[in-house]
Amino acid sequence: MKPIPRISTRGYYDLSSGATLKNNSYYTYPKNDFKKLNNSQEITIMIHGLRNDNAGAIAKVVLAKKQLRKLGYAHPVIGYSYDSNTTGAHLIKHAKRSLAVGQKIAIKNGKNLGKFIEDFKTTSPKTKIRLMGHSLGSQVILSTLEYLAKKKQNIGIVEAAYFFGASITEDVPSSKKYGTIIQSIVNSKIVNHYAPKDEVLLWANKEKYVKGPLGLNGAIGKPVKKYCQKSVKPKNHRFASYAQVLNSYP
């Protein structure tokens, strides 16, 4: 099997505390595949959620690519792999702490992915970049948009973003802070696929680990114009289930 092209920050953050271990921006693998992406009409970057090691990250890209091909999307689909397999994430008693560490790492990764987008657009300015994020991957996307919003030349730099089972809060699309960022950095749209019966988000909400996840009941307030949402019925919280119910892209 050919290696899956991916941008990675694995080993850059401490899995038990979220502390920064390396100040590099990111690395790409395999290098030559990234050179081939230059001058593509567009690319989609898939960003996984919590409890994914490198193999898990690769599996999510394979799933995304398979579903997008089924829907007639013929452009390159690559992965973004980060330290989300935080210590104790699989144990209920450590769930809150490991989620907090995961969120901290996801927030920090905004700078890493943002830097990749800036660098890539420098070498391939006409390529449209779409971002897909599952669960905690929505936080990586939000922090990426926040990082990109610091520079005027980044207006409209991200073509679109797609959330699945998003763990960011339901007030984001209508908030003053993030609304402005979404409107300026995202060129066409942000699509939120939310699932009122998602068992993981129901639990996270009930335990107050995430207060009002955007992926559970959609947005509150008056969201910005570029935001839209679709109610979906995946079998469970896993990305495989969300991919199955995705019926149109982009």
The number of distinct helices, counting runs of at least 4 residues, comes to 8
CATH architecture: 3-Layer(aba) Sandwich
Tally of structural domains: 1
Q: What is the β-strand count?
A: 8
CATH superfamily: Alpha/Beta hydrolase fold, catalytic domain
Low-confidence stretches: none
Structural class: alpha/beta
Mean pLDDT: 96
- Rg over alpha carbons: 17 Å
Oligomer: single chain
The CATH top-level class label: Alpha Beta
What is the beta-strand fraction? 15-25%
Shape: globular
Succession of helices and strands: EEHEHEHEHEHEHHEH
Question: Largest sheet, order of strands side by side?
Answer: 2-1-4-3-5-6-7-8
| Through-space gap between termini | 26 Å
The CATH topology comes to: Rossmann fold
Major beta sheet summary? 8 strands, mixed
Kindly state the percentage of residues in helix.
25-40%
